[in-house]
Specification:
88 residues, mainly alpha, 3 helices, 82% helix, elongated, transmembrane, transmembrane helix, Holin
Amino acid sequence: MDLTNIFMIAIGMVAIVLAVAEVLKKTINLNTQYMPITSVVVGIFIGLVLWPLVEYPLYVMLISGFIAGLTASGTFDLLKAAKKEGEK
């Protein structure tokens, strides 16, 4: 098992994590300061949910979910900064 597989799984999960985190933000009215930790937790949860569907070990899916959550968090911050820049 190499890092390429972990990153490929994480790339596939980023869109799911972004969507779920955004739905949680809108429905629960989460403050944007809690979005990074929310994205990481959602990513790990998605990794757990997808684990029975793939042939990879559990730790690979957990690491992939963690990476997907961090990536989704960075994407969220990037979009937020671009939105603020566009308003000026």
